[in-house]
Amino acid sequence: MQFQWYPGHMTKTKREMQEDIKLIDLVIEVTDARIPMSSRNPDIDNLAKNKYRLILLNKADLADRKKTSLWNEYYKNKGYYVVELDARVNKGMKNIQDVILSACSEKIERDRKRGIKNRPIRAMVVGIPNVGKSTFINSFAGKAAAKTGNKPGVTKGKQWIRLNKQVELLDTPGILWPKFEDQEVGLKLASVGSMNDEILNKDELAVEILKFLHKEYTGKVAERFDVEETDDMTALLMSIARVRNCISKGGELDYSKAAALIIDEFRAGKICKFTMEVPM
After folding, report:
1. Does the first or last residue of the chain, that is N or C, have fewer Cβ atoms within 10 Å of its Cβ?
2. pLDDT tens-place string over residues 165-185
3. Domains in the chain, please, with CATH?
4. Does 75 score more than 70 pLDDT?
5. pTM (2 decimals)?
6. What mean pLDDT is predicted for residues 75-82?
7. What are phi and psi of 147, to 5 degrees?
């Protein structure tokens, strides 16, 4: 499988972000805790040069807790502020305001010395599609300030959201980058739902997911689907189709239906809590 998805609006979004960055004090980068490196757009580091930085490891409830701790330390050692959270249920949200103020403490002190009072921190919220940016903003704001959806591409344009006297957020649409140098990155993005499913071969994607689980979380597929785990992924897919009664109208096993089921349960964390990469 070849993975690539870069709709035209992403070019426009990137250009607008480059224009808006001069207004910004802090860049809040929302990542997917299941793929904490692959869910970071490499263009953001250039965009956010000389800005305070906060990385949110979102969807931490779906990730492997031990590996999330490793990533937390990794990014802190790189000089980022880091918060683990599950924005859907407000888990980890309580600390965000304090972390933002801490990250921007130099700027706040500089303003104070200049006699500038009550000027809010301006933070740009960035990230790839479907990492939960809008869900984070709504949880933080305590209201439906940004449109959400469990698929990439819901946020279509930028919008300023004033949270309180101390913080203003600029919500931006999710952007990928024009070309994946490493197709493994594309596979991981597709696996967690950060690419448009309509361009994917779901049968092949399900087989890749089964390979990953067999290698890194041995026994979890057998436990979830009540099948015998094997190195033969086609046979394993067949077994799952049989157990879950994925049958076509002609009475044949429906592999595509079984593949879609595997992908959905993998993304929802029903097979296991997982993380697809570790710090190098």
Report:
1. C
2. 899 998 888 776 556 667 788
3. 8-171 (3.40.50.300), 201-267 (1.10.1580.10)
4. yes
5. 0.87
6. 96
7. -75, 135
